[in-house]
């Protein structure tokens, strides 16, 4: 069946073969599917010359070639990506022989898995020999086995929406027919219908798919966050039944999927799926542990719902950070800022609930969890610091802080100040409009004071007025712990009193040194 739209003609291979005799007429596409087909044509139009050129090269070499996976799915969603994934019956050596003279550059880092990569213009291309992975279902990685057909390759993929293909070269394709040489849209597992319904199903039984690779369960949550898809009932049931098998997956692979989910447009949808199915219990148990804890300031929400709302509000304020794009550190901090509450909950006389020092406990738990997930040291440090500082603002009251306290707030936040602003503002989820407005005005006032002091004192680069060499010369000491102690004393003076001049700083230093000697330090 053919649908021609503009510059592209798609020959659609139906999801089920026609019966004979008599042949069953193909089912016409639904309006939603027609819209997706049009979106695919528009998305693929800029890449048609490259697709035609690469398909012709494989056809002349006697091999099949098909665009598969995410690029096909994204084309139907009207999304454009310079990264293109292909599959072929050619082995890695044959792929190399075809693309080496044609590509601008190539690499073989995935050769053991049947993948050859190359770049042509702005396009990044990976071409993989048909796969038929074999899992022993107890190891973290599959044993790679090469397959013999496109259909065998597609059925091993995670979801039906990723098991669609556009054949560029192969038997029955006339290189001279149509603008793409007879491009075939292969959809054996109903992926197009799933795209129209925004639904996730697996090509085979979900239990088998998730047994083959448990990380696919994480991908289901990621696609919920990235694409707004819901999972089919049988997939949801399999997620619940097999959640515990995620334990065999390496922390690094889980971390990478979690990062993609958190950087998606709607992380709440994916996180909710992870928690409700029990997947989060395996790698992030602190999150579901928040569901039963009541926040003392916002009793209409439990801490779990509060944390998801803080995450959403932080995402809405990310443009204040000024670095462009999603910010992983602030999103992790927003999600985890209250994970110390379960361990610090206390029931007070009169029915109240307290969580004293939960920010300190939460910072330690955050460090432990992110290290377990193999996050880099900088991310672990920054997220934990934000969790530790997220309550600091509440001591500001109605502006009672001295300039010294404001300086210390800025100094303690350091380069994380803009992220701390976002996190602190996002931590207000009260439904009381007057209270919310008051908190916003108070934080506006704090930011104004920070800006004023920064302009007056170069606050972001605050240092003692004497450097290490000057301190050592005045006191007649060598570099070492004592010099560090003197430096910290002068930094405290600077924070408390602002600029006092080098002469006064030297006088204070000598007085401190004399008192230190008298005290037998």
Describe the global form.
Answer: elongated
**Which class do the helix and strand fractions yield?**
alpha+beta
Could you give the order of strands across the largest sheet?
1-2-9-8-3-4-7-6-5
Strand coverage percent? 5-15%
- Point out poorly predicted stretches: 1-9, 11-24
Percent of residues in helices comes to: 40-55%
Over the alpha carbons, how many angstroms does the gyration radius reach?
30 Å
Write down how many β-strands occur, each being a DSSP E stretch of 2 or more residues.
13
Number of helices: 23
Give the distance, in angstroms, between the N- and C-terminal Cα atoms. Answer: 90 Å
Mean pLDDT: 85
The major sheet is characterized as: 9 strands, mixed
Written overview of the protein:
- This protein has helices at residues 31-44, 48-60, 70-76, 92-99, 150-155, 191-197, 206-212, 215-227, 233-242, 251-262, 267-277, 280-283, 303-316, 328-336, 341-344, 358-372, 377-389, 403-413, 417-426, 433-457, 468-475, 481-497, 502-518; strands at residues 2-5, 8-13, 65-68, 83-88, 105-107, 115-120, 123-129, 165-169, 184-186, 199-200, 230-231, 346-347, 353-354.
- The model is unreliable at 1-9 and 11-24 (pLDDT under 50).
- A hairpin with a 5-residue loop joins strand 12 and strand 13.
- The termini are far apart.
- The protein has 521 residues and is an alpha+beta fold.
- Helix 8 (215-227) runs antiparallel to helix 11 and helix 14 packs across helix 17.
- It is elongated, with a radius of gyration of 30 Å.
Would you spell out the secondary-structure blueprint of this structure?
Layout: E1 2-5, E2 8-13, H1 31-44, H2 48-60, E3 65-68, H3 70-76, E4 83-88, H4 92-99, E5 105-107, E6 115-120, E7 123-129, H5 150-155, E8 165-169, E9 184-186, H6 191-197, E10 199-200, H7 206-212, H8 215-227, E11 230-231, H9 233-242, H10 251-262, H11 267-277, H12 280-283, H13 303-316, H14 328-336, H15 341-344, E12 346-347, E13 353-354, H16 358-372, H17 377-389, H18 403-413, H19 417-426, H20 433-457, H21 468-475, H22 481-497, H23 502-518
Parallel strand pairs: 2-9, 4-7, 10-11
Antiparallel strand pairs: 1-2, 3-4, 3-8, 5-6, 6-7, 8-9, 12-13
Helix pairs in contact: 1-3, 7-9, 8-10, 8-11, 13-14, 13-19, 14-17, 14-19, 16-17, 18-20, 22-23
